[in-house]
Amino acid sequence: MGTGTPVLTPGDGGHRPEALSGTHGPAVQTFATTDVFAALGTSPRGLASADAAARRDRYGPNELPPAGRRGLWRDLVGQFTDLFAVVLLVASAITFLAYELQKPRDVGTLQLAVAILGVVVLNAAIGFAQEYSAERTAESLQAMVPHTCRVLRDGERRELPARDLVPGDVVVLEAGDAVPADCRLVEAHEVSVNNAALTGESDAVGRTADPVAAGPVLQARNCVFMGTDVVAGSAKAVVFASGAATEFGGIFRLAAAAPRQRTPLQRQVALMARRVAGTALAIGAALFAVRVPTGQPFVETFVFALGVMVALVPEGLPATLSVSLAIGVRRMARRHALVKQLLAVEALGSTTVVCTDKTGTLTQAEMTVVQVWAGGVPHAVSGVGYAPEGDVADPQPVRELLRAAALCSNARLVPPSANAGRYPQSDRQGWRVLGDTTEGALLVAAAKAGLDRAAEEAATPRVAEYPFDSVRKLMSTVHGGTVDGYHAYVKGAPQELLARCTRIDWSGERLPLTEELRAAVTAANDELASQGLRVLAAAWRPVSDSHSAQDEVESELTLLGLVGMFDPPRTEVSDAVTACRRARIRIVMVTGDHPLTAEAVARRVGIVSRSAPTVVTGARLDTLDDDGLDALLAAQGELLLCRVSPEHKMRVVTALQRRGEVVAVTGDGANDAPALKHADIGVAMGASGTDVAREAAVMVLLDDSFASIAAAVRLGRSVYQNIRKFLVYLFSHNIAELVPILAATFAGFPLVPISAVQILAIDLGSDVLPALALGAEPPEPDVMDRPPRARRERLFSSTVMGRILFLGGIQALGVTAVFFWHIHSSGMPYSDFTEDDTVYREAITMVQAGIVVSQFFNALAVRTDRQSVFRIGLLSNPWLLAGGGFGIALMAAISYLPPLQALFNTAPLAATDWAVLAAFGALLLAAEETRKWWLRRRQTTTPKGEAR
Ligand SMILES: Nc1ncnc2c1ncn2[C@@H]1O[C@H](COP(=O)(O)OP(=O)(O)OP(=O)(O)O)[C@@H](O)[C@H]1O
Q1: Is the CB of 358 under 6 A from ligand 1?
Q2: What residue ranges are annotated as transmembrane (predicted)?
Q3: By the 8 A CB rule, do 446 and 402 touch?
Q4: Rounded distance, CA 718 to CA 715, Å?
Q5: 229-241 and 353-356 as β-strands: parallel, antiparallel, unpaired?
Q6: Are residues 697 and 778 in the same domain?
Q7: Domain-ending residue, one of 525, 545, 566
Q8: What are the tens digits of pLDDT across the range 792-812?
Q9: Do residue 406 and residue 548 come from a single domain?
Q10: Contacts for 466 with CB less than 8 Å, ≥ 6 apart
Q11: What is the torsion angle, in degrees rounded to the nearest 10, for the CA atoms of residue 597, residue 598, residue 599 and residue 603?
Q12: Predicted model pTM
């Protein structure tokens, strides 16, 4: 640590110099700016690296401690207090009681009681493990989006992980940044922050660098705090508290863990499971009521009915659902889409409209100035990327234009040597822009014209700035060091800037901007824009003093010229656009850029294919009322929204939702946050987006690419499909378990065709792994060839119910037939059968094996919705084959191993028995294939078939 820093003493476990806390010694907000630097042992050049490292050792990383695992025990106990678990625990207790009351005691009853208890424990363990792993997944995904900030160290501006900040660091803040630590402002340009996370107040509040009176630090207008966001302006600030010692750290410690939210899908499954449990209860009661009058022993019948009920409860369902969603989340992460909420996985599958930005999402955001226009003459610029290698043809007339543009920029060029391959966003030669890429391109062009930006800035230092915002579409800076007072430089969207110009530099002369000259500028702008170039104009004027008001700075300007920059489209986007078209997802381009630029780019990536898309500007949107906007959106054509601001975006999202659309919208700026929050799926840019946008979104794209949105939609659709697959798989076999029992009861057969313990062995032994494997099925090849699922469509739609009945019905018929065929082939009357009878034991073994084998074929059958399963390859999901194989091996063990025979009352099956069961399973697959063939035929004859 440097000398003269006595006030920096670590607090108890915190990283706040005690003297600055506002309660001990002088409060940081009362200091003059120079004293702030002195008090924190730093300077306007920032800390020296060695000093920063020492402070880092002393104060620790700028992180909040992990939320802690205090929820673990609560989660575990929660698994046992859930409705299913309680029902099962009560059932187990009653069965134990029944065993105690039985005379003579039946060891089968005890086995059942233990089995039910086992079910509860196993279920709780699976549920707990799933929730834990889902949470860890969420945590690790969060960590994949690094939170960085800009810091001055050794007098240089650097980009560092926020965790490396220490008290004394000088940070540079801009609109859209999350404030990385508690800081005192030392320089502020029109800054306002949103303190909602700290104070709950959501309106932006202005901040200043001037000293204020002592008082609670949270209310000090010259301080900004961790956890809050900069919504406008730019600033420099000195960190005075980091990590747990920040105000936010205090709140964070106090905050109780928020209750875990269930997604609508999880709620639907839970509801369905509860309904099935209710039905099971009713069936159990009915069986009891039917069997007691036939003279069956009371306790045994009660235990039997209870067993049936327990067996029908879909135990593993919620856990399988969580696994399936978690797999979806992981697959999306692999495709560069980080989903922050499970909710988004579902919503993605039903997306009907994607409103997408242009720069960075459809294009590479690698801007290169290719043409400069000044005084009526275009000048070509050579070279690609950010390497300042290339030329401006005849640079002299455009030097003033590029000088103004460069001085009015905040970006910085980082050469390959300083980059050392650390940043993935570097261009091909390893150069990288720190800050806005549009500004980066201007700096490169200025360098190519022979300008040295550092020297220019030293000669005419900046004294004020009015930052860029996407509503005004302008940025201005004021510079001193000139002979005639101060010069203001303004750059921005040509139309906006032109409206504020009264003169133009034309071939060395300063001319009044006549209508004719305005028309010439507009024509030049249109010419550049129609080539798909992003166009910026630059202008200047002398101003009277360094603190001239924004209105003065941005009026009566002299236009210097136009700059056209090319941003190559992303190569992967056109395929993704085609996929979205096939999937009947509408793509609406929403851009702040010029209509001609937007249209040219849209054509390049395939969003526009017709000769004349509907192009609507923000100004036109302003003239439309809600009905007019609805009518515009109802016309299902190609739509480009240009020159729009984030407010327009928000309005369009709301209007689309009013029309029942499920809207995904991309955003990167701080003021995109409302639209991101409002949309069904807010998508933020991970690479270039602001912290605020990332916080507001439910999905973050690591690579910013539109193709990743399309990939996530595809995976979202497949997650939903997979969930339906295992629901059909699991519920259909319940029918196969129930029907033989009902048939035996009504046929007057005195014993059960399948015992409760056997059913539990199926539910928890042979069915679990194939169900999980179905949840992990890769997307079906035609998943993007269908229209989006309707928003209101229920998980258990009539199609799903129909399929459950179809497949379950076939299984049920088969096993019931097998059972009675075996019983009848012995020629014994029903009343002679006892539990120990070999024929009976063989018959119930056949029933259990029949369900296990047919479930194997069932799992294969449900892998596709409409397509033939042979098309995706019968053997293409190895997990499913392994899971099914395990189930059959388990069944064989139950049939052949004496201890298991004793437990399940089973008998060895003959090879012919297996052959019969396999033939029956194949029949089920054939029936389902026929049904799918019929569906496909119907689809080709009725092209507007339903979503599924
Ligand atoms: N740093 C800047 N300084 C001045 N003007 C700018 C700057 N960046 C962009 N502009 C101008 O403002 C217009 C709107 O830019 P903005 O960044 O709001 O658009 P956007 O919606 O992000 O565009 P896109 O869809 O291309 O991502 C641009 O066309 C450009 O003319």
Answers
A1: yes
A2: 76-98, 110-129, 269-290, 302-327, 795-823, 843-862, 874-897, 909-927
A3: yes
A4: 5
A5: unpaired
A6: no
A7: 566
A8: 777 788 889 999 999 999 999
A9: yes
A10: 189, 190, 474, 475, 476, 477, 550, 553, 554
A11: 100
A12: 0.76
**Same domain flag for 792 and 920:** yes
Phi and psi (nearest 5°) for 649?
A: -55, -45
The atom of ligand 1 lying closest to the CA of 361 is: 27
Q: Each residue of 587-608: pLDDT tens digit?
A: 999 998 899 999 999 999 999 9
**Domain closes at, from 238, 254, 270:** 254
User: Of the residues 234, 465, 470, which should be mutated to test ligand 1's pocket, given the most ligand atoms within 8 Å of the CB?
Assistant: 470
Q: Is residue 928 within 6 Å of ligand 1 at its C-beta?
A: no
- Computed from CA positions of residues 786, 791, 793, 796, in that sequence, does the dihedral angle turn out positive or negative? positive
Active site residue 106: no
CA–CA dist 856, 881 (Å, integer): 8
Confidence of residue 895 (pLDDT cuts 50, 70, 90): very high
810 is a domain residue: yes
Which residue, among 843, 864, 830, has the nearest Cα to 294 in the 3D structure?
830
Same domain for 786 and 890: yes
Please state, as a whole number, how many other Cβ atoms lie within 10 Å of the Cβ of residue 163: 17
What is d(CA 718, CA 784) in angstroms, rounded to the nearest whole number? Answer: 9
- Rounded to whole angstroms, how far apart are CA atoms 793 and 350? 10
| CA-CA-CA-CA dihedral for 896, 902, 906, 909, to nearest 10 | 20
Cis check for the bond before 104: say yes or no (omega within 30 of 0): yes
How do beta strands 534-543 and 485-492 pair? antiparallel
Ligand 1 midpoint to CA 704 (Å): 17
CATH number where 468 lies: 3.40.1110.10
Q: Does 684 share its domain with 732?
A: no
Both tokens assigned to 249? 């750290």
Closest CA to 564 of 525, 604, 518, 517: 525
> Among the atoms of ligand 1, which is closest to the Cα of residue 590?
25
- Do 627 and 672 reside in the same domain of the chain? yes
**Which residue range is the domain that position 628 belongs to?**
337-362+570-704
| 712: in domain | no
| DSSP three-state, residue 198 | helix
pLDDT for 411-452, tens place per residue? 888 887 665 444 445 666 678 888 788 999 999 999 999 999
Three-state secondary-structure class, residue 368:
strand
Q: Let me know if 181 is exposed, middle or buried by CB neighbors in 10 A (0-12, 13-18, 19+).
A: buried
Residues 574 and 479 in one domain: no
In a domain, 286, yes or no: no
Ligand 1 touching residue 357 (CB < 6 A): yes
Q: How many residues are present in the chain?
A: 948
157 half-sphere exposure, CB direction, 13 A CA radius? 14
Counting residues of the chain whose pLDDT is more than 90, the rounded percentage is 40
| CB 536 near ligand 1, within 6 Å | yes
Kindly report, residue by residue over 468-498, the tens digit of the pLDDT. Answer: 888 889 999 999 987 778 999 999 999 999 9
pLDDT band at 641 (very low <50, low <70, confident <90, very high): very high
CATH number of the domain that 29 lies in?
2.70.150.10
For helices 706-747 and 264-291, give the axis angle rounded to 10 degrees: 0
Structure token digits, residue 652: 């369009």
CATH code of the domain containing 883: 1.20.1110.10
Q: Are residues 635 and 768 in the same domain?
A: no
CA torsion 751-753-758-759 (nearest 10°) is: -120
The three-state secondary structure class of 14 is coil
Q: What's the total number of domains in the chain?
A: 4
Q: Is residue 282 part of a domain?
A: no
**Residue 123: CB partners within 8 Å, gap ≥ 6?**
79, 84, 85, 88, 315, 316, 319
Cα–Cα distance between 804 and 529 in angstroms, integer? 57
**CATH number where 662 lies:** 3.40.50.1000
Query: What would the two tokens of residue 761 be?
Result: 């062995």
Angstrom distance (rounded) from CA 35 to CA 19: 13
Of the residues 164, 229, 357, 913, only one is catalytic, namely 357
